[in-house]
Write a structure and sequence with these properties.
Layout: H1 2-12, H2 14-45, H3 48-51, H4 68-76, E1 91-98, E2 105-112, H5 114-119, H6 123-126, H7 135-142, H8 145-152, E3 168-178, E4 181-192, E5 198-208, E6 211-221, H9 223-229, E7 233-235, E8 238-243, E9 246-254, H10 257-263, E10 270-278, E11 285-291, E12 297-315, E13 318-321, E14 324-334, E15 339-347, E16 350-358, E17 372-377, E18 380-385, E19 388-394, E20 401-410, E21 413-428, E22 431-432, E23 435-436, E24 439-453, E25 456-470
Length: 472
Amino acid sequence: MILRLALRSLAVHPVRSAVLAGGFGVGVSVMAALLGVGEVVLEQARAPGLLGGGDVIVYGATGRVSSARFVLSNVIQAPPLGRQVEAASPQARADLYLRGHGRPVLIRARGGIPSLERAVGDPEIGATPSWVDVPADVEWASLRPETVLRSIDRFHPLPDVPGRAGSWAEWLYFNGSSPGARFYLTFLVGPRLPDGRRIASVRLQLDRGGRLSSFATVAEVDEARVLATAPDLDIAGNRVRVDGSQYRLTLDLPEQPAASRAAGARSGRRAAGELTLDAIAGRALPPIAIRGAGGWQSGYVVPVMSGPLRGALTVDGERIALDGSGYHDHNWGFWEGVSWSWGQVQKDGLSFIYGRIHPPADAADPARVPGFLAALGPDGLVGYSADVTIEETVDPHTGRPVRIVVQGKGPSLDLRLQLAVEGAVVTPMPQGAFGCGMSFFQLRVRYRVTGRAGDREIAFEAAGSAETFRNR
C-alpha cells in the first residue's frame, strides 16, 4: 500500500518528489558526517598524548577516581597489569578563576607528581626542569603497603550536618576463624561529646563451638588524635596498629555482665591476647561512599578481603588459638535508622563478598539503593555485579533467619550464594541515634556457591560470615 502511494506521488509530482528525496539524502549525509567528526574530536580530546603522555587513561566509572593510591598499588602495579606497566601517574583537574581589574578568567588547571609525569612522557613538564617533587610528592609516590593501608583506612572528620551529628560513627571491624573458634571484633568511635571528645568502644564476640561470649569496654578519646593517627587506635588499653602490611591487635576486655549471667559463669572474666592479620595486595575493595538527602552519607572500604590470621586469646585461663583466615573492613557515616545485609566467604584463593545498605526513609528510597557482589582472586578483582537480589527465609516461630539466597549477575560474574545459618549472635538495636529499633544478627553460615566469576566456573561449599537485621 505504502509503495503504491509513493509511486503515484512520484508520477503526479515528479519534481517535488525528487527535491524532497534529495533533501532527505543531504540531511542524512550531513548528520553522518557531523557524527563522524564529533567522534574523532572526542577521541582526540581523550588521547593520552594530549592529556599528559602515557598510553592509557584510567577514568572513574562515576567521575573522579576516589582513591588513586589504591588504584595504583592494588590494580595498576599489581598482577597481572603490574608486569606490563612501566610507569603510571595520577592527575587531578580543577577549574580556577583568575581575578584582576577586569572580569574573572576561567583557567583549567591540571596537577600531578613531577617525577611520575616525566616517567609517562608528559611534554609540558619535560620542558620545565624546575618542576621537581616536594617531600609530600615523594611520600605519596612511594606506595609503601603501610602508606596505602593508612590512606584507605583513615578516619573522617565529622560532616557539618547538625541534624544528623548525633548518629555519626565509624569503626574498624575484624572477624576471623580457626578450627573450633570464630570471633567478631569492633573498634568504634562515636559522635562528639559536649567537651569535644568522642565516645569510643571496643566489643569482642567469641564463638567457641556454639558457646557465645561477649566482652566490651567504653571510653572517651581525643578527636584530633583519632583523626591524625587512625587506623592506629587506643581505646581503654586496647590497640590497633598498622605495621607494614600487617594489622596488630592487642585486647584486654571484661566480659559483659549480661553475658556472664546468661552463660552461668562467674563475673570478672576477661579476654586478653594479641592477634595479627596480614593484608595482601590485590585482595581489597576501594573506598566507596553513598549520599542522600539532608546531608546523609555512608562509606565502606575493605582493606583486607582475606588474609592470614595468627595469635591467641586467653579467657578464664583457657588459651584459644586463632590461626586461620581473617577479614577487615571499615565503615563510617550517619547510622540512625540504618540497617544492612552483608556476607563474605573464602575458598581456594578466591574471596566473595556481598552487601546492601538500607538508608533511612528521609535520606533515600531503600528500594533504589543497589547492592553489590564481588569476587576477588590472588591477582585482584575477578568479577563484580550491582544487579543483586538478597532473599531471606526466617523461622516463623522465632523470627530468626535460617536461610539466605544471594544472586548477582553481570558481564563478569553470574553467581548464586546459598547460605544455611548455623549460629547467630543477636544484639537488640535501640531506636535512635545508633539504631533502627531492630535486632542485629551476626551469623555463622555455611555457603554453597555456584556459577561463574570471570572465566572460572565456581562450585564449592565453605564456612563464612553474614550480617542482617530483623524486626523484633
